[in-house]
């Protein structure tokens, strides 16, 4: 260790008040080799300044220093009595210090523990927390500039540091060959004397002056300061493999060097490992975003042919766009673990644009499924309770009820076990594809991430483009041997309809309507009771206007209640329950099995024929001794009595007012009114409430019986399908909730978007890249049903209780056929929303799915298989998209929609999309591009999916991003391929040895079934070889599934 003895001596002889701590101590050491023989104990005057402990020669204050101890990489340990020891990690002998009092010893221990750099960092952290508690915000950082008031929708705080790299005059290994350069960026840990590989640039081939388009960015939470040092190592990659590369040179610099340099730019010499030979230079330029002035841009020198550029742009901490403004509490609550990448690309006019990709995990990946599973459990437990409350049933129906209850309990037990296991998980907020077939994670979407591309282009408004990437919502754990949900449900309904069951068949529409009836009467019953109390209160106040208003509201809700009960389904259900009682004996010969269908809902009678025991009838027989009309007629009669009484009271009130001038006439009229209004209305209101309660009681039983019949017909296949549908819907809802929240946060300041949101709703466009071959057919069938189920989901915006992350999490309520997702916002944000949204108006999302298979399995499907599923999905979802556009164009002005450089009319784009769907073109990816463009034009939410949201998804997203840069931001055509390669490069994350995706270790396992497809291009040359190949592939698949 080098030091200046004279300077240290001068520092030790400083003024008494300039030291952190000083005083007299007994000093001695115990050598590690002979710990039983300590050195001689000497009293010395000790002085502490920073991380330096001076031991003076004598015990007086004014003496010369005998020794200095650097308090780094050591531990302060309290010993017995008033002693302490300093233990060094290097293995040096421990230093023992004894004070004269215990209080003096504790003071020295506290001072010594805070003297090293670790103690200093703790103090800085403590002071930052104090500032946050006082100001309520993060203190400004020396690297970040001004405190950011509102961050990007993806990441609330700007990166701590960003810089770009370019090399000049690199030494060539041979004369004939120019290097393929790549730079590896490492962080130097000075305390541990180690290197941590942080990232790498892309490879720039065949030049001695490479300009790297991929920059380096450090996230806000990364622990760097002015003294943090980086090592830049340049390699020559002879082949795109980490093993075949050669070292060219390296250099180091600190954050302070870059920040304090002129124009925040460093030119460093690259040297060989021994430091003797220079092999070129490297230019490090701090990247900043948002403050490039037009004059500065014009002065930027570029040379596309020579790859030379001086690039300077301003940081996101200084300049923000409207799309990026948001509340940091919102971001911290929903988006976690952001990953950021930065690029610089050249435009057609030789200017430079700055691009930042931000990818983050979403807490809703686990939050939404956990809430859904809780709701599933609660709903099934209520179902069991309703079945128990049906009362006595005939032995046949009682046995069916027991079977249904047992199956419901099995589902509840399975869901509770899954929920318990999920609650134990900690760490990442997403499920990797390697875990897609794990039972306890089947409700969790695969690889759900949010990705935003921010573009800062000279002389143009900044823009942001968002996309959600997620694996196809599908039941991977249950498998696809028998197909997916669409095929299974169709087959199940056909079998259930055509097979004789010991129950009454109800169509899916009827069972769904039964659940709606249960929900409606559950909501209307307490409302009618409350309105009745309000009517009595108005009568007690003797207020005519208030009485009229209360009566009108009560009448409307009661009529709505009666209308719900007048449904033909309720009549049939009440009769079916009546006939299922133990004491019922039919007066007519009827079939054991009955059938209720939408096509013939009215009861029939057939007293002449005697059918076979298992022959089903078209409907329930109607029996004259049971009159279903009585279930609601009493409610209507009670309401009519209340209306008549209110009319009479108001008539008397009007007569009293008209006769006010004639006291004798007024006395006569008043004498005919018996008591006050409250006394006369009270018994009528009580009767109405009793009738409503009785009707609700009977209706609940009848609807529960409908659901019992539906469940009894479904055992066990129907309950298995219900579990599968629950799994798929959970994944789909988590994805769409993530997209909705992301889109909402981005558009909080956009009045046009908010108007569209509450007037029409949002389009949610799912782009699927699944093939229509093998297992992916089942995945696509699952995905189709899961996305169509999202049409029964609505969103609401509510005011959050506080700004705590737990209070900003979306909340799911409802039942299987109808869910509401409530999104809380902080009070200051909520107050700025339109009144319609603040009043809790339901906000709708219109999900559409477009699928185009793009892999080699799709080639097989198109040549030898069936792609009708893909064609049907695209055609049906185009109709939904077209209808949404029709409603949008009627209710929302075009000014509310975003503007793009390419001004093709939306109607024209829809026509082109329709034409592409109609034509028979293989792998027509134009459908996906047009659908995505239309979605962005209509302020929609974009999703991209494949089996695992990895390879195909990343290729699609990067291609879309580069196309947007080309079409909307004038990306130079010479840079299009380079930009695409940069975004797809696996060099840029981690070290050179990390070529693959973080999940690439599982790729081989996940794709083992497709390895026998690789030689297809070669085999197509010969028809004989192709036949042999098909036979071998068939044998392989049969062996696999057996």
TrEMBL record:
<comment type="similarity">
    <text>Belongs to the inositol 3,4-bisphosphate 4-phosphatase family.</text>
</comment>
<dbReference type="InterPro" id="IPR039034">
    <property type="entry name" value="INPP4"/>
</dbReference>
<feature type="region of interest" description="Disordered">
    <location>
        <begin position="595"/>
        <end position="623"/>
    </location>
</feature>
<feature type="domain" description="PH">
    <location>
        <begin position="18"/>
        <end position="117"/>
    </location>
</feature>
<dbReference type="InterPro" id="IPR035892">
    <property type="entry name" value="C2_domain_sf"/>
</dbReference>
<keyword id="KW-0378">Hydrolase</keyword>
<protein>
    <recommendedName>
        <fullName>phosphatidylinositol-3,4-bisphosphate 4-phosphatase</fullName>
        <ecNumber>3.1.3.66</ecNumber>
    </recommendedName>
</protein>
<keyword id="KW-1133">Transmembrane helix</keyword>
<keyword id="KW-0472">Membrane</keyword>
<feature type="transmembrane region" description="Helical">
    <location>
        <begin position="1013"/>
        <end position="1039"/>
    </location>
</feature>
<dbReference type="InterPro" id="IPR011993">
    <property type="entry name" value="PH-like_dom_sf"/>
</dbReference>
<dbReference type="Pfam" id="PF00169">
    <property type="entry name" value="PH"/>
</dbReference>
<comment type="pathway">
    <text>Signal transduction; phosphatidylinositol signaling pathway.</text>
</comment>
<keyword id="KW-0443">Lipid metabolism</keyword>
<keyword id="KW-0812">Transmembrane</keyword>
<dbReference type="InterPro" id="IPR000008">
    <property type="entry name" value="C2_dom"/>
</dbReference>
<dbReference type="InterPro" id="IPR001849">
    <property type="entry name" value="PH_domain"/>
</dbReference>
<feature type="domain" description="C2">
    <location>
        <begin position="146"/>
        <end position="268"/>
    </location>
</feature>
<feature type="compositionally biased region" description="Basic and acidic residues">
    <location>
        <begin position="595"/>
        <end position="607"/>
    </location>
</feature>
């Amino acid at each position: 260790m080098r030091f200046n003895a004279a300077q240290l001596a001068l520092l030790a002889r400083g003024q008494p008040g300039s030291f952190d701590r000083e005083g007299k101590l007994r000093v001695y050491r115990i050598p590690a080799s002979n710990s039983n023989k300590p050195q001689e104990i000497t009293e010395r005057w000790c002085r502490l300044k920073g991380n330096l402990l001076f031991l003076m020669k004598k015990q007086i204050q004014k003496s010369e220093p005998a020794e200095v101890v650097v308090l780094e990489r050591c531990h302060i340990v309290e010993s017995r009595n008033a002693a302490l020891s300093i233990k060094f990690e290097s293995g040096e002998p421990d230093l023992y210090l004894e004070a004269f009092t215990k209080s003096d010893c504790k003071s020295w221990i506290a001072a010594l523990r805070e003297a090293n750099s670790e103690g200093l960092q703790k103090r800085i952290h403590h002071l930052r927390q104090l500032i946050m508690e006082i100001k309520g915000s993060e203190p400004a950082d020396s690297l970040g500039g001004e405190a950011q008031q509102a961050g990007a929708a993806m990441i609330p705080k700007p990166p701590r540091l960003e810089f770009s790299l370019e090399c000049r005059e690199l030494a060539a290994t041979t004369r004939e060959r120019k290097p393929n350069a790549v730079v590896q960026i490492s962080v130097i840990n000075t305390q541990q004397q180690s290197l941590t590989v942080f990232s790498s640039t892309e490879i720039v081939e065949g030049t001695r002056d490479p300009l790297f388009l991929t920059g380096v960015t450090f996230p806000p939470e990364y622990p760097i300061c002015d003294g943090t040092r980086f090592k830049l190592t340049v390699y020559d990659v002879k082949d795109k493999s980490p093993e075949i590369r050669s070292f060219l040179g390296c250099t180091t610099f600190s954050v302070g060097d870059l920040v304090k340099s002129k124009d925040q730019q460093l030119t460093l010499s690259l040297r060989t490992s021994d430091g003797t030979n220079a092999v070129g230079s490297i230019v490090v330029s701090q990247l900043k975003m948002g403050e490039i002035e037009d004059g500065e841009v014009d002065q930027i020198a570029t040379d596309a042919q020579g790859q030379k550029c001086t690039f300077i742009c301003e940081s996101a901490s200084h300049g923000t766009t409207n799309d990026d403004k948001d509340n940091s509490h919102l971001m911290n609550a929903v988006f976690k673990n952001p990953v950021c990448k930065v690029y610089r690309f050249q435009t057609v006019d030789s200017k430079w644009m700055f691009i930042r990709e931000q990818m983050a995990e979403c807490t809703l990946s686990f939050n939404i499924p956990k809430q859904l599973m809780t709701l599933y459990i609660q709903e099934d437990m209520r179902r069991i309770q309703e079945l128990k409350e049906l009362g006595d049933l005939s032995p046949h129906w009682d046995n069916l009820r027991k079977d249904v209850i047992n199956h419901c309990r099995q589902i509840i037990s399975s869901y509770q076990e899954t929920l318990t296991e999920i609650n134990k998980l900690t760490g990442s907020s997403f499920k990797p594809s390697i875990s897609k077939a794990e039972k306890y994670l089947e409700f969790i979407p695969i690889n759900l991430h949010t990705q935003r591309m921010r573009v800062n282009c000279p002389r143009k408004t900044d823009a942001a483009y968002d996309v959600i990437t997620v694996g196809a919502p599908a039941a991977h754990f249950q498998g696809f041997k028998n197909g997916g949900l669409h095929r299974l449900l169709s087959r199940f309904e056909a079998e259930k309809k055509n097979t004789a069951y010991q129950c009454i068949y109800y169509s899916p529409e009827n069972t769904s309507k039964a659940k709606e009836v249960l929900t409606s009467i559950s909501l209307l019953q307490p409302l009618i009771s409350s309105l009745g109390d309000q009517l009595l209160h108005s009568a007690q106040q003797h207020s005519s206007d208030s009485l009229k208003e209360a009566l009108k509201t009560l009448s409307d809700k009661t009529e709505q209640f009666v209308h719900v009960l007048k449904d033909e389904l309720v009549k049939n259900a009440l009769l079916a329950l009546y006939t299922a009682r133990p004491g019922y004996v039919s007066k007519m010969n009827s079939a054991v099995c009955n059938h209720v269908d939408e096509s013939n809902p009215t009861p029939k009678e057939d007293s002449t024929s005697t059918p076979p025991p298992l022959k089903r009838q078209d409907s329930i027989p109607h029996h004259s001794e049971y009159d279903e009309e009585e279930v609601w007629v009493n409610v209507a009669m009670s309401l009519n009595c209340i209306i008549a009484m209110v009319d009479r009271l108001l008539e008397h009130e009007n007569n009293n007012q008209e006769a006010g001038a004639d006291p004798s006439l007024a006395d006569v009229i008043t004498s005919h009114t018996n008591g006050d209004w409250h006394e006369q209305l009270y018994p009528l209101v009580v009767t109405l409430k009793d009738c409503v309660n009785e009707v609700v009681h009977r209706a609940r039983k009848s609807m529960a019986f409908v659901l019992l019949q539906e469940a009894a017909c479904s055992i066990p296949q129907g309950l298995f399908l219900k579990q599968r549908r629950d799994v798929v819907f959970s994944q789909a809802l988590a994805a769409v909730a993530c997209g909705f929240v992301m889109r909402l946060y981005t558009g909080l300041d956009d009045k046009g978007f908010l108007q569209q949101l509450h007037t029409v709703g949002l389009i949610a466009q799912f782009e699927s890249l699944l093939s229509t071959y093998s297992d992916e057919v089942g995945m696509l069938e699952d995905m189709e049903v899961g996305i169509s189920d999202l049409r029964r989901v609505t969103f609401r915006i509510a005011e959050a209780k506080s700004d705590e992350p737990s209070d900003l999490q979306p909340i799911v309520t409802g039942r299987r056929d109808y869910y509401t997702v409530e999104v809380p916002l902080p009070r200051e944000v909520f107050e700025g929303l339109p009144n319609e949204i603040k009043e809790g108006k339901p906000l709708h999302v219109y999900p559409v799915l477009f699928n185009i298979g793009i892999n080699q399995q799709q080639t097989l499907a198109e040549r030898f298989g069936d792609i009708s599923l893909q064609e049907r999905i695209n055609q049906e979802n185009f109709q939904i998209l077209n209808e949404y556009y029709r409603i949008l164009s009627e209710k929302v002005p075009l000014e509310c929609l975003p503007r793009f450089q390419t001004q093709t009319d939306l109607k024209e784009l829809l026509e082109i999309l329709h034409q592409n769907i109609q034509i028979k073109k293989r792998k027509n990816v134009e459908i996906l591009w047009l659908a995505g463009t239309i979605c962005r034009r209509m302020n929609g939410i974009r999703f991209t999916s494949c089996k695992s949201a990895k390879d195909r998804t990343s290729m699609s997203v990067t291609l879309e991003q580069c196309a947007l840069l080309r079409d909307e931001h004038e990306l130079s055509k010479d840079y299009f391929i380079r930009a695409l390669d940069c975004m797809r490069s696996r060099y840029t994350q981690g070290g050179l040895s990390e070529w693959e995706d973080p999940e690439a270790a599982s790729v081989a396992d996940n794709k083992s079934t497709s390895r026998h497809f690789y030689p297809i291009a070669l085999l197509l040359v010969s028809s004989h070889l192709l036949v042999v190949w098909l036979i071998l592939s068939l044998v392989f698949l049969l062996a696999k599934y057996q």
